[in-house]
Design brief:
Layout (H helix, E strand, L loop, with lengths): L1 H23 L7 E4 L2 H4 L7 E6 L6 H17 L2 E6 L5 H9 L6 E2 L11 H4 L7 H6 L8 H4 L2 H7 E2 L2 E2 L1 E3 L5 E6 H7 L7 H13 L3 E3 L6 H15 L2 H9 L9 H14 L12 H9 L3 E7 L2 H4 L10 E3 L1
Parallel strand pairs: 2-3, 9-10
Antiparallel strand pairs: 1-4, 1-7, 5-6, 8-10, 8-11
Helix pairs in contact: 1-3, 11-13
């Protein structure tokens, strides 16, 4: 009996490993999926069902893609896959489940660039996917691990081991209201001084230059990320995030922080952005209350119901 239980646990772990890889898709960067470890999965969803967190709700085009993958996993492994919404308002409940030892089998929790997420590995809550990533074949004869773009691999790993895989690739751009820009004769900004001048002009007209949320760190953090990339480049950032370098070693960090502080002081962001969640900030942009928003290519699909038909939406 004990041997049978052990075998069923191993089988379940293998299913979790396969489903984490298949569900992840390994297309590049973007959202990150992690599979629970043995102790967590044995307390997770019951029976042969695998509970997989997804970022988009039923009815969206993205959800249809998740469903196709779930159908494939079910067909190949004689197991049922339950897709659950794991974004925005669903996160508090899911985090409570993690603390109670009853999390989904696959969820968005680990990113080695985020130090606050490392405990999921050190606490033994995530499944080591390394051998599965290295052994599974990708198109062209390479492995799943080698198929991940080099810039993203470190975010998937801790101490050289894989605990998650990228789910999809997205492009991040500066979306802007074409009508507002045309009315003022503006081209999209290409330099920091361009951006500051455009912000000053829109602010003088009573229009918030940039929509952003101050309650969701990743979206606010994109401004910091891009300033760092422009000022010092990705290698210097990675040397601090994953190496022995310190912020004080490179004055470019101070320059980037100063630029961001200048943008806030110049009222470049949406009025009251510090207390506005990201859905409300995005809605403000589409309602014409702000001229620009730095956001990923998921923006249109995520906010489809809130976009006026006549909005001249452009991206730089």
């Amino acid at each position: 009996m004990a041997r049978e239980v052990q075998r069923s646990l191993i089988t379940r772990r293998e299913l979790l490993g396969r489903s984490a890889l298949v569900a992840a898709g390994v297309f590049g960067g973007g959202p990150l999926l992690a599979a629970c470890g043995e102790s967590a999965s044995s307390q997770g969803s019951s029976g042969d069902a695998i509970e997989v967190g997804v970022l988009y709700q039923a009815g969206s085009p993205f959800y249809e893609a998740y469903q196709r993958v779930a159908d494939q996993v079910e067909s190949d492994n004689d197991v049922s896959v339950d897709l659950i919404f794991a974004n925005t308002e669903a996160r508090p409940k899911l985090q409570l489940r993690w603390r109670q030892g009853n999390p989904p089998d696959v969820d968005y929790v680990f990113n080695s660039g985020d130090r606050t997420s490392l405990h999921y590995v050190t606490d033994g809550q995530l499944l080591d996917l390394t051998s599965r990533m290295q052994d599974a074949e990708w198109d062209g004869g390479t492995s799943w691990a080698d198929a991940i773009l080099p810039a993203f691999r470190k975010f998937c790993q801790l101490d050289g081991k894989y605990y998650m895989a990228p789910e999809s690739a997205v492009a991040v751009g500066l979306f802007y209201n074409g009508q507002l820009f045309d009315d003022k004769g503006f081209d999209p900004p290409t330099t920091w001084s361009d951006l500051m001048e455009i912000c000053e002009s829109f602010r003088a007209d009573g229009v918030s230059p940039i929509a952003v949320t101050g309650t969701f760190q990743p979206y606010m953090g994109m401004w910091w990320d891009y300033l760092l990339l422009r000022e010092i480049g990705p290698d210097a950032v990675m040397d601090v995030a994953h190496g022995d370098a310190k912020l004080a070693d490179n004055p470019g960090f101070v320059t980037s922080a100063t630029n961001l502080a200048d943008l806030v002081e110049a009222e470049g962001f949406l009025d009251g952005f510090e207390g506005i969640d990201f859905t409300a900030a995005q809605a403000s942009f589409f309602q014409g209350d702000a001229a620009m928003i730095l956001m990923g290519s998921w923006l249109q699909g995520e906010m489809k119901a809130s976009i006026p038909e006549d909005l001249d939406l452009r991206v730089a």
